[in-house]
């Protein structure tokens, strides 16, 4: 009996919805059995590398999935949505970014609070992609100073990409609440929204920057222009209740996470094809960024608590949280083996 035979996968058109560069809808992978169940939420397919857990062919490469734990994978519109699911007790682990993690800890948004258990990727690394604000090729918004009076697209306010706008405007002496208009739109709509004139520019994560470059869009600025060095941006967190109740299963998942990332680096072309097919994305889109210099720095899955502390302290200066906190109380490398 193969691993696939031992598992029951839910992968239908109805489950996937309309997943593509223009629509990236929800998806799920469910494994049946009597092993401990875990639920993992992510936001952006492929870009959030933990999303690869949803792909059956990649699941088959993992040592513990299906025996030490079951897994359900879901996609949410934004990290605050995932946080809300975790607070409701529907999600054990979720991809969060800088602001949503800090806000969740400070506000105790999840009963029992949360702990960071892995780093998904870093932003502003000098040799890798940094989150970038793009405008149309003929736009009047050509450089950061032009943000004054502009309409700027973000996927949601109170997120890490929103923080990038606030940080740049503060450096320019502008008021991010009154000197620009922030518009919430799904990431996949940014290109059309700019072309249609609904927004002047948008904040593009790595996967969507492929389309922006393909349209000849103008790079207004990137995170490297606002942060003096790389910082951890996206993380996998778990509710403390899940860690108490399912700690062994989450530890087994952490071993598989390391195994999966190593497999992706060793078999990049195969993984690009599998991810494009599963998430119904154009393969050139995935190939144009995944594990290239147009992707984020993501090789180190463990948590750099010193740099994480710096990032959380910065969010106080940016006005996203009122007070910082000791990250070592809400982050642990216990569940992810070192490379």
UniProtKB/TrEMBL annotation:
The keyword Transmembrane does not apply. Keywords: Signal. GO terms for cellular component: periplasmic space. The keyword Signal applies. InterPro entries: TAT_signal. Pfam families: Phosphonate-bd. It is found in: Periplasm. Belongs to the bacterial solute-binding protein SsuA/TauA family. PANTHER family: ALIPHATIC SULFONATES-BINDING PROTEIN-RELATED, TAURINE-BINDING PERIPLASMIC PROTEIN. This is NitT/TauT family transport system substrate-binding protein. It comes from Halobellus clavatus.
């Amino acid at each position: 009996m193969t691993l696939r035979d031992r598992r029951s996968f839910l992968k239908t058109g109805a489950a996937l919805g309309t997943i593509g560069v223009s629509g990236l809808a929800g998806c799920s992978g469910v494994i049946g059995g009597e092993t401990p169940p875990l639920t993992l939420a992510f936001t952006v397919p492929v870009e959030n590398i933990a999303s690869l857990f949803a792909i059956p062919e990649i699941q088959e490469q993992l040592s513990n999935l299906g025996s030490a734990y079951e897994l359900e994978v879901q996609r949410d519109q934004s990290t605050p949505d995932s946080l809300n699911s975790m607070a409701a007790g529907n999600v054990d682990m979720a991809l969060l970014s800088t602001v949503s993690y800090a806000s969740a800890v400070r506000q105790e948004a999840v009963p029992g609070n949360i702990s960071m258990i892995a780093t998904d990727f870093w932003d502003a690394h000098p040799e890798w992609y940094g989150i970038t604000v793009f405008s149309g090729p003929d736009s009047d918004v050509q450089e950061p100073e032009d943000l004054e009076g502009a309409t700027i697209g973000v996927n949601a306010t109170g997120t890490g990409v929103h923080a990038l706008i606030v940080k740049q405007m503060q450096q320019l002496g502008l008021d991010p609440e009154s000197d620009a208009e922030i518009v919430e739109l799904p990431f996949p709509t940014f290109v059309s929204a700019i072309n249609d004139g609904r927004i002047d520019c948008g904040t593009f994560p790595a996967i969507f920057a492929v389309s922006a470059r393909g349209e000849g869009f103008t790079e207004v600025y990137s995170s490297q222009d606002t942060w003096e060095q790389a910082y951890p941006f996206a993380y996998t967190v778990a509710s403390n209740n899940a860690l108490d109740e399912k700690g062994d299963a989450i530890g087994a998942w952490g071993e598989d996470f390391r195994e999966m990332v190593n497999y992706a680096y060793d078999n990049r072309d195969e993984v690009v094809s599998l991810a494009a097919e599963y998430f119904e994305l154009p393969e050139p889109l995935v190939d144009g960024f995944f594990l290239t210099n147009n992707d984020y720095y993501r090789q180190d899955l463990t948590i750099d608590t010193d740099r994480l502390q710096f990032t959380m302290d910065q969010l106080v200066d940016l006005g996203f949280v009122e007070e910082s906190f000791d990250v070592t109380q809400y982050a642990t490398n216990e569940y992810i083996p070192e490379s």
